[in-house]
From TrEMBL:
Organism: Yoonia maricola
UniProt keyword Amino-acid biosynthesis present: no
Residues holding Zn(2+): C36, C40, C67, C70
Enzymatic reactions: a 4-O-methyl-thymidine in DNA + L-cysteinyl-[protein] = a thymidine in DNA + S-methyl-L-cysteinyl-[protein]; a 6-O-methyl-2'-deoxyguanosine in DNA + L-cysteinyl-[protein] = S-methyl-L-cysteinyl-[protein] + a 2'-deoxyguanosine in DNA
Protein name (record): methylated-DNA--[protein]-cysteine S-methyltransferase
Pfam families assigned: Ada_Zn_binding (PF02805), DNA_binding_1 (PF01035), HTH_18 (PF12833)
GO molecular function, one term: DNA-binding transcription factor activity
Length: 352
């Protein structure tokens, strides 16, 4: 899918436990017969005993067996037992107001948890839990009153709920109309809660609810719609929800929901180019710029890629670094890795 950097670069990444190669490069150790992630906490092997591979299948074909410490067959974030324990607890009690004392009562060190979640998800566990609670309130708000939504989200203080919701939507919950031109609703996916903003005909925004750029993107949509952004659901929401369900269930990876693209002509051209990358494959920023006939516009391509506000459907996750590293992703590198892996499954399924 991409060319690995040279072995010296990868060995340096192994010594540094560089997370940018997680899911993109693996090391097979000839002296032990084991293959690992480059972030494996085990003692580092000698340079002459290392063989580097782009995927798990290549490691297994070469006769290596998976490491029992870094679990290279598992998604990167879920292989961390601390993360796995807390995510399971959050799934079991999504409306609970988690705190650092709760984390400590589970026998976990709060600073270790904070670093682990920041490394894998770009935010702390407590921030993730707060976003999950807010998503619960989002769903309740579309069907009931503000106070019902506040209680459903587990916020004791009405002002705290209003402030958190206003930060996300760019407006206080009580000011949002249910007959607005654009309406926002909450979707659940295996990779986390998402917010979809649609009108009667098209999808305008699809983002993970914990993405830091989401409030800014919502403000831009409010400006474009002259403030007519509210809470509710159109048939467009049902369509994209159904297509996402099929995608994550490994049944189908085609998206036919109409898209409304908000951006400059160049930005929209980049987004359309992203959609031409076959599922299961990746491209570098420079390759995309070259394919557009603008080889000097690598930075502009990167900015347009980062400005994408329709996650998964417009596949900005298919863009990686020239050296094969995952590079940044607004939804978190762990999600990027899993989406790419899922698309590879779909691509293999289509092979004769």
């Amino acid at each position: 899918m991409f060319d690995l950097p040279n072995d010296d670069t990868l060995y340096d990444a192994l010594l540094a436990r560089d997370a940018t190669y997680d899911g993109r490069a693996y090391v097979g150790v000839s002296s032990t017969g084991i293959f690992c992630r480059l972030t494996c906490p085990a003692r580092k092997p000698k340079r002459e005993n290392c063989r580097f591979y782009a995927d798990v299948a290549s490691c297994i074909s070469a006769g290596f067996r998976p490491c029992k410490r870094c679990h290279p067959l598992d998604p990167a974030a879920q292989s961390d037992p601390t993360i796995g324990k807390l995510l399971a607890a959050l799934d079991a009690r999504p409306a609970y107001r988690w705190s650092e004392p709760d984390v400590m009562r589970m026998g976990l060190d709060s600073s270790t948890v904070r670093r682990a979640f920041k490394r894998h998800f770009g935010r702390t566990f407590l921030e993730m839990a707060r976003s999950r609670r807010l998503a619960s309130g989002f769903t309740a708000l579309s069907a009931g009153s503000v106070i019902d939504a506040q209680l459903d989200a587990g916020f004791d203080s009405p002002s705290a709920f209003r402030a958190a919701f206003a930060k996300l939507m760019g407006a206080a919950p009580g000011t949002l109309s249910r007959d607005a031109l654009l309406r926002a609703d909450h979707l659940k996916t295996p990779l986390g809660d998402m917010i979809a903003v649609c009108d009667k005909r098209a999808l305008h925004l699809l983002e993970f609810a914990d993405r830091k750029a989401l409030p800014t993107e919502m403000q831009k949509l409010r400006k474009a719609a002259k403030g007519s952004v509210g809470i509710g659901r159109f048939e467009t929401h049902d369509q994209i929800a159904s297509e996402l369900d099929a995608f994550f269930a490994k049944r189908c990876d085609s998206f036919t929901t109409s898209l409304a693209l908000h951006g400059t002509a160049f930005t929209r051209e980049v987004w359309k180019t992203l959609q031409t990358i076959p599922a299961g494959e990746t491209r570098s920023y420079s390759a995309i710029a070259a394919s557009m006939g603008a080889p000097q516009s690598i930075r502009a391509v990167a900015r347009a890629n980062g400005a994408n506000q329709i996650a998964i459907v417009i596949p900005c996750h298919r863009v990686i670094g020239a050296d094969g590293s995952l590079t940044g992703y607004g939804g978190g590198l762990w999600r990027k890795q899993q989406i790419i892996d899922l698309e590879r499954h779909h691509a293999k399924r289509r092979l004769p």
